[in-house]
Amino acid sequence: MGWWSTNQLAALAGTTERAIRHYHHVGLLAQPERRANGYKRYGVTHLVRVLRIKRLTGLGLSLAQIAELGDADEHPEKALRALDSELAESIERMRRARADLAVILDQAAPTDLPPELGRALADAGAPATERSMGVVLSQVLGPAPLGAYVETLRTCGSEPTLAEFDALPANADERTRQDLAERMLETPSVRKMLTAFPTFEDTSADSPHGAEFALNAITRAVAELYNPAQIDVLVRMNC
């Protein structure tokens, strides 16, 4: 009388017999005495222990963390404060994720780009090559040049010479390439972009991966995304 079976303990604690057996297996719950017939006899101390385990796991502590607390877990302040800090960080990550999702959903922005850059490219009607270039730049540029890139996209709009550049065939003759380079240099938005990005070396100076890595990545992206005539126009514009 006054003792509980495994089934009764599980029912009282609002858990399962399997969970009780697992707590025994991992050393979180002491084995109870047994009756003469071999059945386990659980008491109040076992119920209290199981309820504490449930409460702490419900708060977010793992069984391994609870095991580290030992028997002094009635009010594990240090572990709970550490958990609170982790939860605060998780909430902040989720807040930022929701903010990004709001931009993506509202602006139909691509998911492979930072929201602000994706929105700027979408608003500018950028072609697939420019979007792909934007993906590379978003990974290798520091905050300042990337912000300048976003700002220039916002001011470019549907610039006719940029549309010509996107449609320039690989076999465009010298006169066509030179003429396009000159007209692009006369375009205010293009001049602004060149001011913000005078050379690849300058834009990669504060790259999170280092200047050399950024320069190699941008150079490789240009070679892959643009045809020889387009690359020649870019070279002429930067001469």
From TrEMBL:
InterPro entries: DNA-bd_dom_put_sf, MerR-type_HTH_dom, MerR_fam. Residues 1-72 form the HTH merR-type domain. It holds the Pfam family MerR_1. It comes from the Bacteria. Keywords: DNA-binding. GO terms for molecular function: DNA binding; DNA-binding transcription factor activity. CDD domains: HTH_MerR-like (cd00592). Coiled coil: none annotated. PANTHER family: HTH MERR-TYPE DOMAIN-CONTAINING PROTEIN (PTHR30204:SF93), REDOX-CYCLING DRUG-SENSING TRANSCRIPTIONAL ACTIVATOR SOXR (PTHR30204). This is DNA-binding transcriptional regulator, MerR family. It comes from Amycolatopsis saalfeldensis.
